[in-house]
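Before relying on records like the one below, remember that each one covers exactly one chain. Contacts with other chains, cofactors or solvent are not represented anywhere in the record.
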Amino acid sequence: MQRAVSPAADLSALAAFAQIVRRVRPDVVHAHSSKAGAIARLGRLAHPRIPVIYTPHGYAFAGHFSSVVERATYREIERVLSPLASRVVCVCEAEARLACTVCRAGRVAVVHNGVEMAEPGLVDPHMEALGREGPVICALTQLRPGKGLETLLDAMPEVLTHHPSAQLAIVGEGPDLQALQARASMRGIPDAINFLGWRADTLGMLRGATIFAHPSWAESFPYVILEAMSAALPIVASDVGGIGEALVDGESGLLVEPADSSALAGALRDLLGDPERQTRIGRAARSRVERCFTQASMIEGTIDVYDKVLS
């Protein structure tokens, strides 16, 4: 979600960027996210010989949170700035399809996100304690609009009807904390919902989970999905953005429609009731990351784009 900033702040950032470029004289500039991408592309007007690569990590005009007017405005900004990018490097095919609506397809490349493979290690003590009470569904995300935690909380009463000892661990922080706590109370399930705040050791949290849930309403290609796959966790996620490129539905994860609490509840309920299937899906997920989404393959793909731009 984009944060509003003052025009003065944007001009200051653009001036600072121009100073850095003059001092460092880079061979290539690679900007990540829409604001950095806008600054780098505008900065190219002063340094036209330096290639600029832009990775959106989710276009604002495709976000669920924007109004129709906002989406149209964001789309037009991207269209106007697109000629200033030497390449638009997208983190998934879904993002690339969006990129091709605002810039020439020949300038669009895809380099999927990648992660280091998770190794065995310690389980976070909070997750370990929850695991002694019952199976743990883990969601690791920012507590802000668009992450779909409302859908997950709405799904939990049905899940608890079939699996009364289940616990939901929500790892992260953000502006929606109080609203989500109130929603859990309204659903009559506060004792099963655990808001654990931000944790630096994400792998320690994942190691203590039974199932990983990602109910987001809009995404590009989230690292956290790959991290959960690497940890051999069975995943239930919304079929948005490039998540369906990471997970093969029914094989290395389960995909549901976004904002559909009934579908989410059904997938979680059924998966909790089938430990053998949990293990099978988790192993398939880890194997898929090893084949397709390693950090090494991401770096190799990015360097390949740099070489092509500089050749």
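The mean pLDDT is 94.
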